[in-house]
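Homework-ish question, so no full write-ups if that breaks the rules, but can someone show me the predicted structure for this set?
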Amino acid sequence: MRTAFLVPLAAFAALAAVLGVYLYQVGPGGKSISALPSALIDQPAPDFALPALDGAGVPGLAASDLGGHVALVNVFASWCVPCKVEHPLLTALAKDGVAIYGINYKDKAEDARAWLARLGNPYRRIGVDATGRTAIDWGVYGVPETFVIDAKGRIRYRHVGPIMPFDVDEKIRPLVRELAR
Amino acid sequence: MRRALAAALVAFAVLAPEAGAVEPGEMLADPALEARARELSRELRCLVCQNQSIDDSAAPLARDLRVLVRERLAGGDSDDQVIAFVTDRYGDFVRLRPPFKPETWLLWLGTPALLLAAAGSVVLIARRRRAAAAVPAPLSAEERRRLDAVLGEGP
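A: Not a homework solution, just the prediction itself:
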């Protein structure tokens, strides 16, 4: 009976531990509170075929272009400010030989062209998703999003929001290296 | 004037939940199909805002999904097929009422279990107190002596 007072204390400690662990995981380099796991992880990329961006100098993008090699698929738009933030990192990855494909989401062709002309084009192929339908098939809910596709054409990783240097160093590069083996 | 204002407020309060974010251009011509679309839209989470349904949300993605739901319905999908179509792409989180399965048992049963545990301990504590109150402690030797003295029957 003397130890009965410990029960609420233990309950509080358990709750504090659960919340504490969650809080510890959230934050820079960790989980984002609103980022959701993709429903498509380890599944083949959805079937799609998108036309090229006129004047960008690279072909369009279709499901048949994925697979056979490890690739990044990046959903971007010229109106999307975080896309500009992550752009130098994509450029660096492309320079190191990583295949990066772009899905240009709900953009005006002239804006997209101007954006790529100004910042450079890290994409080997760009598919224009003017209606946003293909993005829905990919489960996209926030631009930018970045997917890592393995050599079998399956989605192995999804990142919502701009990728940051630690995402590249700790997640994307190691995963690309591992999948390329 | 006051009465008119009150009437307007009541009208707003009553009609507002029905309004949603659906725009006339998105609606289906068939009222029965449109009603089903509204029902389904209220079940689907807008992933941009995360705490609104796509029926409530003004986000562009919510609009796209509303249009998509209507297209699927017009194409002959059942309600379950529409929900499955969206869930396949966005996961169970897109459903505002999560399905009941092992991953969500804690979510569905956790709160009732906590409530039951709390109610159980309240009942237990109350019983213990009642039992403690029902049997008063016996008189001590000193109390017995004083009682006997008062009653005049002591030695």
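Now go work out the reasoning yourself. Hint: The mean pLDDT of chain A is 92.
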